[in-house]
Amino acid sequence: MFCSAFRMYLIICLSLFLACSTTTPKPKVKEIPEAVVPTSESNVKEETKGPSSIAITIDDLPGISLDNYQEVTDKLLTTLQNYQVPAIGFVNENKLFSKNKLDAARLNLLDDWLAAGMELGNHTYSHPDYNRLTFEEFTANIIKGEFYTKRLHEKYGQTMRYFRHPFLHTGNTPEKKTQLEEFLADRNYEIAPVTIDNSEWIFAKAYHVSMRAKDPAQMAKVGESYITYMEAKTAFYENNAQQLFGRPIKHTLLIHANALNGDYLDELLEMYQNRGYEFISLETALADTAYDSEDAYAGRGGITWLHRWAMTKKVDKVFYKGEPTCPEFIQEIAGIKE
Ligand SMILES: [Zn+2]
């Protein structure tokens, strides 16, 4: 008796459910082609994410060295995808040309970045130093540098929105700096700051030298030293951020598209994961209110934004002490003084 009543109850419930599910129209989900799904996480509120997060930004695309563009690109993109990193690459379009002719294979490398769900930004056409150029010369180089990258974004239904200063030189006088800021805003560019600045480029040169010398033992030594150095540098800037803001901030890391990162990006990302970091887009990082801090620095240096904010706040000199340096042996192999 109980069983049959229960069965009847179930049948009624089931018919009601079927009636509802067939008569209530489901909201139509608009299918978005994969290529135009934004890589950003604009809907994520600033405080809903964990305390340690970092945007990975990679400069000098399509690559530093002319002889291994494709290999480095493939390795970087594979690693970024494996770790689900929504990275951004900053392009120098002069590197798309070979003997004054557009090299389709190199342009395809940029397409690979967007196809892999990454974003691209403008890093000027030929990487000039704003300290040495007039405002007019420098901005002409910015405009020249957006031609192909802008069109590639349009192909993917996206807009190119970020600018990264070569050498992080933002203007050696207050006038040049303000002029450039206004120019970039008028052209709908957002400046891409860096909090974790570093001498990775010296390690990259040392790695390249060791690779050319066919010295795998030395390559491994340089690679291991690179990860140790980057962790020390990160710890230093974590401490800087804590002192300035009283909390961890969303960091922005600057590295380059080179053979060193082709081979060691996975170890670098592993290091960040082990420190509890989550990988976020540049857009998400910049939503941290730390980036709204005043930056009154106008000088020749290409320095971290943490130090620009600290200088503006006139913090005590002790704040800058103890910054890790590139080991001597790396500088010697690279033939570069830090
Ligand atoms: Zn650069």
Question: Can you describe this structure?
Answer:
This protein is α/β, with parallel strands linked by helices. The chain has a single domain, classed as Glycoside hydrolase/deacetylase (TIM Barrel, Alpha-Beta Barrel), CATH 3.20.20.370. It is 47% helix and 10% strand. The chain contains 12 helices and 9 strands. Strands 1, 2, 5, 8 and 9 form a 5-stranded parallel sheet that branches. The chain has a two-stranded antiparallel ribbon with strand order 3-4. Strand 6, helix 6 and strand 7 form a beta-alpha-beta unit. It is globular. Zinc ion (ZN) binds next to strand 1.
CATH architecture, by name, is Alpha-Beta Barrel
N→C terminal distance: 88 Å
* Major β-sheet profile: 5 strands, parallel
Into which percentage range does the β-strand content fall? 5-15%
CATH superfamily annotation: Glycoside hydrolase/deacetylase
Count every helix, treating DSSP H or I runs of 4 or more residues as helices: 12
CATH topology: TIM Barrel
Order of SSEs: HEHEEEHEHHEHEHHEHEHHH
The dominant shape is globular
Oligomer: single chain
Bound small molecules, deduplicated: zinc ion
Approximate helicity band: 40-55%
Short description:
This protein has helices at 2-23, 69-82, 104-115, 135-144, 147-155, 174-186, 200-212, 216-245, 259-274, 282-286, 305-312, 328-334; strands at 53-61, 88-91, 97-98, 101-102, 119-122, 162-163, 190-191, 250-256, 278-280. The chain is α/β, with parallel strands linked by helices.
